[in-house]
Amino acid sequence: MAGLVALVVAYLLGGVPFGFLLYWIARGGDVRSVGSGNIGATNVSRAGGWTLGLLTLVLDAGKGAAAVALAERLLPGEPGWGSAAALAAVAGHCFPIFLRLRGGKGVATGCGAFTILYPAAMGVALIVFALTVAVTRMVAAGSILAALAFPIACGCLGAGAAATSLASITGLMIIVRHHENIRRILRGTERRLGAGRGISD
To answer: Does a structural domain hold residue 194?
Structure first.
């Protein structure tokens, strides 16, 4: 029962749409109607400014971390439940019940959640993200490759089969949520950092 409670709460925490709420409070509109239509930090920052984007990033990461912390408190000594809670939080962000399942891409939430569990593996993913963005100037490309690198790093650094499997599912979900970005990258039309206003991540 404690595990079920942890997963439900993790999903609901992940579903709190901070980017949507912050943009609505600051600009009085729906961030899903501008830019890429995404509620994540990248689109919020481009539509509403860096302050809103940074707040969104911190809060989205924080809700992922909170979901894992709660699972670990309810089920001490059972790290598999922490990974399951991380997956549930990312699913909540991507498919929030509060926004009729129209959410974000789960990058910041997943980062916050799995940093608590496997900081070394997340460090590898963040290095991949930073290097990719530095070379391509595309946040989406960095997010996709980091989502691919993280479960690989988990497996190589001894996270265990169950945790690595859950990390792989989470990474796959994040990559699938970037399907439009992948199409734009292949067409050469993906928005780059420093470019003028246009399609956002």
So the answer is: no
Q: Is residue 63 part of a domain?
A: yes
Under the banding of pLDDT at 50, 70 and 90, the label for residue 2 is confident
Q: Amino acid identity, residue 121?
A: A
Q: Considering the chain, what is the average pLDDT of its residues?
A: 93
Angle between the 107-117 and 79-94 helix axes, to the nearest 10 degrees? Answer: 170
Q: Cα–Cα distance between 154 and 159 in angstroms, integer?
A: 5
- Is residue 192 a part of any domain in this protein? no
Report the 3 state secondary structure along 161-183.
Answer: HHHHHHHHHHHHHHHHHCHHHHH
Give the pLDDT band (50/70/90) at residue 151.
Answer: very high
Q: What pLDDT, on the 0 to 100 scale, is given for residue 77? A: 80
Arithmetic mean of pLDDT, 3-16: 96
Number of domains, the chain: 1
Among residues 28, 58, 53, the alpha carbon closest in space to that of 42 is found at: 53
**What pLDDT score does 4 carry?**
93
Instruction: Report yes or no on 121 lying in a domain.
Output: yes
Domain that holds residue 175: 2-187
Tell if the pTM clears 0.90, that is, is over it: yes
